[in-house]
Each structure stands twice: as structure tokens, then as C-alpha cells.
User: Fold these one by one.
Assistant:
Number 1:
Amino acid sequence: MQTPLKNIFPNFSNELISAIESNASMQNFEAGTILMRTGQYIKNTVLITKGKIKIYREGEDGGEFFMYYLQPGQACAISMICATKSEKSQIMAKVVEDVSVIMIPLTLMDKWMMEHRSWYEFVIETYRSRFEEVLEVVDSIAFRSMDERLEFYLKRHKDACGCTELKISHQEIATELNTSREVISRLLKKMEQRGLVKLNRNQIELLK
Amino acid sequence: MQTPLKNIFPNFSNELISAIESNASMQNFEAGTILMRTGQYIKNTVLITKGKIKIYREGEDGGEFFMYYLQPGQACAISMICATKSEKSQIMAKVVEDVSVIMIPLTLMDKWMMEHRSWYEFVIETYRSRFEEVLEVVDSIAFRSMDERLEFYLKRHKDACGCTELKISHQEIATELNTSREVISRLLKKMEQRGLVKLNRNQIELLK
DNA sequence: AACCCAATGTGATAAATGTTACTGTCCCTT
DNA sequence: AAGGGACAGTAACATTTATCACATTGGGTT
């Protein structure tokens, strides 16, 4: 029933795959589970083999600002970075689609860096791609107004789900962009008038 | 005349210091120099031994959004991340105080990860601290209004210069926060009325 | 069908931020 | 000393975003 690890992480060496299989534990979580909260200590590095996780930055007032998705074949960069020093998490991770994850203890994460070239490259590439993604998020809030940010948001969700119909409420979008529902409803209406989307109840169809 | 490398990078092993001294080149740049532009290919990892560098994210419209400072004992995380794949720079780096930097070729940056534990730890710690700093920047723009962002900005500049008198124009602050001078002038005036700062020409004195 | 409730639409208004225009001040250069 | 230019103060107005109030819609439940 399980997809072989080699398929999900094609760049991992066979030795690394063996090491993972004999040392790491696989766990499953249902949609809605909070995998990690801001401030919690990180004890494992997390690899995703199935499902989807959303990463948020939490505001002091309870805001949940959407940062990025984690998907199969990816790892949580924060858990890698913090793992080496057992630091506190700076982010919140929420399961949005039932996931299977591989938990790798801190000590191994560090040890494998020296032993497995393919692990080293995977970690570095994870850092790089997440850093870039976060920089794009900075762009979107630093330079753009809400209508452009909304389009950016929708595009990223479309890319993540691989479909054109997003099942998401205006309220949820508003929360994740740290604005209010009314603003999102109005901007979506304008986008509909421009022919960019088609609005249905609990669903946004992306036309372009 | 040179401060020994060991003083600036106390955690580097003696072997690593020797490797740096025999392989890397030291260069000096004057204040105002653009060390790296967005889109340029990165050929070296940069360590700072003297002076200060500011890192910006550039907007399409020419905006220069301030991200963080680089100071002696630190390295450019982007140059490390991108170095391994010779990627394009996602940021712009401007010298703000005459600097001396050590340029480390791509190949060595990567090679040393395996050979020198202290280099490995330095690189990982650089990633971690920069990632955290960028997340704080995200916070400031995602959750806070301009007056709080201004206070955050001033605090970071105070920390970087280690003094309470910032020599900076309102226009420069406005550019680096991607807003307009008038807004900054107004907010600074309010801060002065609240007793947080004292305003002089080309200088802002931080009182608290 | 009658009802409930979450989701959405929309107008009115407030607050924050951006823009324009103009003034004054200080410093440097000539 | 006179002129020019960068810097700063401020008023008036425009735009964007946030907030409040309330209406409407549609799906599910009883």
C-alpha cells in the first residue's frame, strides 16, 4: 500500500533510504491536526510522504499568516534548521490533507549530513528553496497591495492543489492574509468582473 | 593592522583558519558600493571581517526594502545557499560602512562542509539565524502598522550601530520601508511627542 | 415546508496610508 | 553674501483598507 520512499525522494541514495527505514518512524495525522505550535521545542525533522501541511507565522493577536505549503517529497526547513540546536519553533504547522510523515531524530539529521551526500544536498536544497519562497512572501506584502496579494495567494494554492477549483471560504483567505472577510469578498467580486475567477459557494474557480 | 581571523570568527578551528588564509582572497569595498545585485550569479561566499553591509529585497518598481545587516563575524546566507548551485542572487547587498570581506570560491564552501566541523556549524547557524530574522521581518509587515514597523526599524538600526544616534534621513527610512517620506516624518514627529526620540537634522536620537 | 446557520454581498463610515503641493531651514559652493 | 540643493514640516486631499451593520443566499436538518 505504501509508495516506496525511493519514488517520493528520488534523489536519496539507497544507503540513505535504508538508514531512514531502519531508524525513522512513520506517523499519520488527520486533516486539522496542529503538528507544531509556535514556541514548541523541535525534537524531530519531518519529511512528508503523503498529504499536505500548511505553515503559518502566528501573530501576537492570534493571527495566522500563511507562509507556504509542505508536500510529499519535501521537508520542514524549520525543523531542520532548529533541529541542530533543539531550538523553539518559529512557526505553526497545520495538516490540511491527511498526511504521512517520517520523523527523524535530531541526532541522525546531523549525523547523516556527513555520511550521506544525498541527504546533505537535500537539506541544502530545502533551505534554499524555502528561503526563496519566504523572500517572495516578503515581496508580496512589502511591495504589493491587497488585490495583488490575493492573486498571489490564489496562485500558490492552485499550484499546491494542482487544480483550478479551490474549496476555501472568504473568511479563511482573510485570516491567512491577515485582513478582513469583507475586503476579500469585495476583491474577489472585482476579480470575477475581470473574468479571472468564477465564484461559487465555498469554492473559487480559477479561470486564468 | 589586521585583526586576526580567530578573533572575528572565534568558533573556527585552526585548520579552518589556515584553509581560509591559504585559499580565500580578502577584498575591500567602500561605503556605497553595491556588492551584489538581484539577478546576478553568485560566484563566492562572502565573510565579513570589517564594516557593515545592508541587505535589501528589490521591488519591480525600483523599491529597496531593507531586510537585515551583515556585520563582522557574519556571512551572507544567500551567498551560501545559492553557492552550491551557482544560483542567481535574490537580494541586493550595499556597503554602508567600508568593509573588508573574505571571498570563498563555491567549490571550497561545499568541500569544507565535510572537512571542517566548525565550518559546517557556522553555515547551519548562519542559515538558522537569517531565517529567523526574515521571519521577524515578515511579522512586522504582515501584522503591524507603519508606526510599529518604524519602531522596529529604528531598533534594528540601533542594535546594528551600537549607538543611539542614527544618521539617516527620513527619505532613506521611507525608501527602506517602502513608504513615503511624509509618512515617516509624521510618525517620527509623533514619536518625538511621545518622548521616544529626539529629532535633529540628518540625525535621530533614540531615547528609549 | 419551516428553520437554522454558515457563507456571502453590500453600503456607510472610520482610520491609515499615499500623494500633491508648497514652505522653511540648513549647509555647501561659488 | 548669494544661490542652489538636500532635508524636513505640514496642510489638503485621494486612495486603500478596516470596521460596523445588516441583508441575502443556499444547503442541510428536523
Number 2:
Amino acid sequence: MAYNFNQIEKKWQKEWEEKKIFCAKKNSKKKKFYVLEMFPYPSGEGLHIGHALNYTIGDIRARFKRMLGFNVLYPMGYDSFGLPAENAAIRVGVHPEKYTKKSIANFIKQQKALGLSYDWSKMLSTCEPEYYRWNQLFFLKFLEKGLAYRKKAAVNWCPKCNTVLANEQVHNGKCEYHKDTEIEIRYLEQWFLKTTEYAEELLEMIDDLNWPQRIKIMQKNWIGKSHGTEIEFEIIKNDESLGKWPIFTTRPDTIFGVTFMVVSAQHPQLMELVTDEQEKEVKDFLRKIKSVSEKELEEMEKEGVFTGSYAINPLTNEKVPVYAGNFVVADYGSGMVMAVPAHDQRDFEFAKKYNLKIKQVIAGGDIKQKAYTGQGKLINSEKFNGINNEKAKQKITKYLEEKGLGKRKVQYKLRDWLISRQRYWGTPIPIIYCEKCGIVPVPEKDLPVKLPKKVEFGKGNPLETNEKWINVKCPKCGGKGRRETDTMDTFVDSSWYYMRYPDNKNSKEPFDKKIGSYWLPVDTYIGGAEHATMHLLYARFWTKALRDLGFIKYDEPFIQLFNQGMLHAADGRKMSKSLGNVINPLDIIDKQGADALRLTLMSFASPDSDTSWDDKVLQGSSKFLKRIINYFEKVKIGKADVKTESKLNKSIKEITNQIESFKYNLAIIKIRDLFNSLPEKTSKDVLEKFLKLLHPFCPHITEELWHKIGNKTFISLEKWPVADEKKIDESLEKQEEALDKLIRDINNVLKLVGEKKKVFVYVLPNEKEMYLNEVDLIKKRTGLDIMIYAVNDKNKYDPENKSKKVKPNRPGIYLE
RNA sequence: GCGGAGAUGCCGGAGUGGUCAAACGGGCAAGAUUUAGGCUCUUGUGGCUUAGUGCCUACCUAGGUUCGAAUCCUAGUCUCCGCACCA
């Protein structure tokens, strides 16, 4: 049969959509299951193969859970605010809204072509005021609660994006979107969300999540909790005290070994420490480290310059010099560290370079060559001598606390989330600056603050030049006010979109609490690992913040996270246009069909491991589907034999487990195996169950064949088969193996002795019937005529007395 | 530097104490079908050996545990990924 998959796939996609069979049910008594993929940024490029992989994984899960009887919510939406649309607007002169809408329409078309079972009635797009007004509401609530605040800060500025970026968006000093662009540091008034408020909870709750280990570890490292001690050092400049400066250390046990201090070269108060004599030298140094590129900076040695000031060690009262250094992070701890060259490699290198004293305070190692960072007993530490250094950490901290010179402290690497962006295509921050009242939040009743449509692009932030939009009355005093022109980071949009899906049309509130509490949290969330420290962390923060504001009751947004692997090009490199190795999913769908594409994507490897595209796998998958169609053309419906029933039920059991645990590649192997064992004649029930097992992977072809064998319902809504343990008979498999072995033996002998016409098979009397049933198969696979005798058959033909060797499941053979 | 993942046949990739010369797919070879090709089907695909057998060498390298290891332990090599001067 010529199977026109294009036509058939379109037919079923249309049917599914018209009958709305994938809509999540309202007020259902069923248990819910919420499957979600990370929503895409709708670029003009359309769907790429990574999307196809992502959505196929999710669709299989959604279809599987639906068939298992869950009330499934499986929605799709678009993360449609953001720089690329705005940049496209500048480049080609289209309004971002137009560009975005067009891209979304294209995405939807392509996603439908993949046969994804989304509930399209739940769709959302974050650039709609109906959506982003709730960003604004949440912002106001955060502000009220002190979770949003404004401060002047050193921020990361990307000159290409023309905006500020969050720490998470800066990699190796480069912009996430412009990998060749250096981030500049600027001091600006910006809006922040207090993610640090939840640092501890964000860290603690990671362990309970069903997430991939590596993502958990990445988040933990990002939050970066460390226990240590804050110690006060008095700073002396020109014999005058500048008061006490705190420093953070995890090694209070080495305090007696402090021989100098280092303050970050980027420290905002650095110049306060610098004496007149040293001013020129320090400024030269600052200029020097500014002039080197980020890359050089990375490879650069530890360098510094004496500030002219000194610090007093609170325990020894020693006076040690304070240096400014390029290796101290300005906004971690207090931006200043105590340096113990004997026991810290960085300090060691610095001390060697500037000829500073090195004082050993822990016994062990050879500190002539490098710092000793191991364990040991304290020396040169006055009354703490002889104590093991781990113990000394406690004792010294306790002592400092008693003297009021320091305290235990927990320090996190996590910073507050900078959400201000100096760009147009984002959610306006609902704030008005009044000449009299200062910062005034836009009253909730005035929400949404809509983005003005008519703006001029290309000259910085288009909102800044839109006088009509900017100038408003102060909501408090009615006086002259100006709108905040910054918009929110798009990660705000994606921090709660999954809460909106179930109640996406609500115009009174972000979501109905009852509806929300039925569907959320998300049961399975599927996406790439690149969001480990951004989106996934922000979403967790948002969830906790909304919980504390009373919007929701759960603590975590995503119970289970599944990371798909990277699909590389056939040459093993990343797919990229410049390399010309891109596989376009739409091309495959056109030529081989969506089912073949889906099957291929799931066949490469376990969906969470990295792989490369391989055309041969596509051809193999395509061929397999053709064989299935051929088979259904020819199969005779009747009674199923016990062997097939056994194999089927065993397969059901295994495949169900494998799909549940995302081992889709293994499930496909089992499905192929099951298919290969299907006889020419079998029952409708067997065929139906086979189709059901294949259905999540290849929904169209199975829907088609389901109807072809006489069903009127949708296989998509059918019940997942349950294995009947009673029908599984392992001994049948042994027989199967024995038969297989027999055929191989015959062929082997055939090869050894050359051409023969006939094979005589001698079996135990109780096995004779079974082998008689397989005569056709043996004939087919050996190309010989066959005679089967039981060993006790009187008139058997057995010239070499081969029947003497016969054992159970081990027939004797003679060829002639 | 720190942290994580991995290394299996010609290739992709299963397998995680015995039933393993190792699933499934691909490639390749031979045969059947065919006017031919494609499709489809059958067989073979570490080495030697044998009327269906037996043996040897194999799952990165080197050791070890065990009656027995691709599978567990130790050390090392290589590859990929994440963080990167966080005191």
C-alpha cells in the first residue's frame, strides 16, 4: 500500500483538534497530571530539532499518562518578550509585536505538524497585557513586602544589548547573547528582587526534588553557601583609625598567620583607604587592570598594590599592610579578605610576588614551595597551639565572639536578582517618580501599565523618548510625575507562566486559587540544562515568594525535572547555520512524516544523553513503520496463540516501566522486538494492544491503523494495556530460543557441508507437536525441506542415528 | 583548580556480578525475489576449530576482590559538560 503519511497525519491532527480531545477536564474526579515543556522563545527561525526533541519527549509522557487514566494538562505558550524581537525590529523595521505574532503563528503551525497533543485552549503569550499585567501586580506585592527594592549598584552593562544584565546572564565576563562582547561595569539605580531572602530555603529544598543530580549540584554551587566567621579588623590610615572593617573567612583557624590584607580593586570604598603617597600608584594599578581584556584577566597573575593603610589583627594586635588586589571579588563577603600566605595558595603567590611575610600557623607541608592547605595542629598561635585546626575553627570563633571581635556567619554566593532592563520589549515596571513624593507605585486599579505601541527604535530605550507615555500625574499628589522607563527582565515572565496555564483567561486575578491548587505543582517539567541557574532558580524563588504572599500553598513549582540531551549534527559538532549541518525538523516531516521523525528522535539514545543526528536511524525508523503498515495490510485476524500472548504481556510489562522512567529508546527496542514476533494470524486484541504501545511514539500511524482494524474511537483516548501476568509463560521463550538455535545449527551445518536439500529433525515425543507447528518457519529460514520425527517413531529415517543425541529443547538433525 | 558525566564490536548504542562474543538499529557480505535497481525476505559479520562442537582473545589501561567481572574495588589515561580567583 502506498501510505501517504502527510495526508494521514494531517487528517488526524485535524480530527484531534476539531473534537478537542486533548483538553484538560474541568472539575474532574480523576487524578491530575501536569506535563510541561519549557516554553519557547518564538523566533523567526521557527522550530529547530532541539524543540522537536523536547516536545516529543513531553508529548510521549502526556499521551502515556492520559492513557493511564490521568486528567492531563499539557499546555503550550510563548515566551514572547525579549531582546531578539526588539533587535529584529531595529534591523528590519518591523514592530516587535508584529514580528512576535508572526513567529508564534509559525511555531504553532509547526508544532501541530509534529502531532503534539497540546490543549491549545490554554495557550498564553507573555507579551500580551492580559498576561504581563500580573507581572506588574506581583511586582507591587513584592514591593509592599520588601522583596523588591531599588538601589544604586555596580551592574553588568552590555553595550550591544544596551541594557543591564543579571549576574546569571553574564558568562566569563561576556554577555550571554553577545559572546564576543565584554560586559562593562556601570553604577546605576536599578530594581532588584530579593532572591537572597530565600537562599537558605532554595538550597535546602533542592534535595527533595526529583531532578537530575547535576542540575541540583549546579544550583547548590550557584547558591554557594559557606560557613565561616566574620572578623573585625581595625584599619589605620596615617596613624588614624578608620574604624573597624569586617572580613569574612572560612579559615578563622589561620588568623594568627595573617600577614597582610587584600581589598578588592573594585571595592566602592577603596579610595578611602589609600594614602596620599600611594594614590598615584593605586590609580595606575586600577587603570592597568581596566585596560586588559577579560580573557587576559582570567589568565593574569595575582597582582596588587599597597594602599598605604594598615590593619590591626584583633588577636595579635599586629599591624599588617592593606593591599588592593585584582583577585578579590568586590561583592562577596565584604570585598576584603585577610591573607594567610602560609595556608592559602592565592595569598601565597601574592606574598611571593610582593615579598610579604609568610607565617606558618598549622604544622605540616613544606611552605617554601606552596601553601599548606591540609589539616594539622596549630603552631605560632599563642594559647591555641597544639589544637587540631578543625577544632580551632570553633574555638577561635567562640573566643572572637566572646571578645566582641567577630561572629559566626553564613555566606552565600547568590545575589539579589537585578530585574531592570533598559529596553522596550518587556513588562513596564509599574512605578512613577513624582517630584514631590518620590517613588510611587502605580495603584493596582490602574494596571496594566501598557507598553505604548508607537515608539521610535534605534536610539537607546524607546520608552525614554516617548514623552506622551512618560509624563503622568502622580497617583498620590496629582503633581508632575514620570513613569519608570525600565522594563522587567523576561525571566520574570517565565517565573510563573506555568501557574497561569490552567486558568489562562482569568481577567480578575493571575489565577483562581482553587484551579491552581488542583493542577499545580507541575508533575513533569521537561527542558534543556541551560536553564539550571537562571529560569529554574528564579521560578523556585517566585513560587516561594507567592506562597508567602498567600497566592499559593505549595513550596516548589516542579516536582520532577527531566533534562533532554543535546542533539548534535551528524558530524558530532553543534548544529549551526554557519557549519551548514542543521537538520530542519520540518523537512523531515515533509519527506518521511512526523511519526518517523518522532521515532527517530527517540531511537538515538536515552533522551537525557547527548547524541548526534544520524540519517541511517531515520531510514531505519521509516522502514520499520512501513513494515508495520505492510503487516497490518496482510494480517489475518483470528485467535491469538499462547506464544504471542505471552510475549505481548511480557512486553506490556516491560514497556510500561520503561516509558514511565523515560527510557524511551529501550521501550522502542522492545516494541520492535514484539513486532518481529507477531505471527501472520493473530487476534484483534493483540493488534490493538500493540498499537497502543506504539501510540505515544507514533500517534498518527497508530490512530490510522486503529481505525483500519475496525475501531471508531480514538486510540489517543484509549486505556493503556495492562499486563496479564497469568499469560506470561517463560517456558515458551525457552522453546523459542531452542527453535532459533535449531535453525542456526541447521544453517551452520549447511555451511560446513555444502548443498543439501532436506533436513531431518529428531525431537522428544512431547516436543514433536511444537516443532511440527514451526515447520513453515524452519523451511523459510533454512530453505530446506523438513521432516520431523519423534525419537520413538518406528519408521523414522535416521541413517546416522542422530536421535541418540537428542535432549530436551535440543533436537537432533541430519541433512542430506 | 573544583564539581559532574562518560569510555563496549565497523558505527550508533543496550547490558551493571554468572544464562554474554554481547540486545536493537545501521553498515558491510552472501543468497532469494526482480528484466535491472529499489523495496522486501533469509543468512552471515572477533580468531581458530567442528556436521549443529570445542577452545582462545575481547567491553579504555594496569592491578585487585570473587568459584565467577563488561558489570564490584583501587590507581591511571582520555573525552565531554558545568563553575571558575567566593577567602
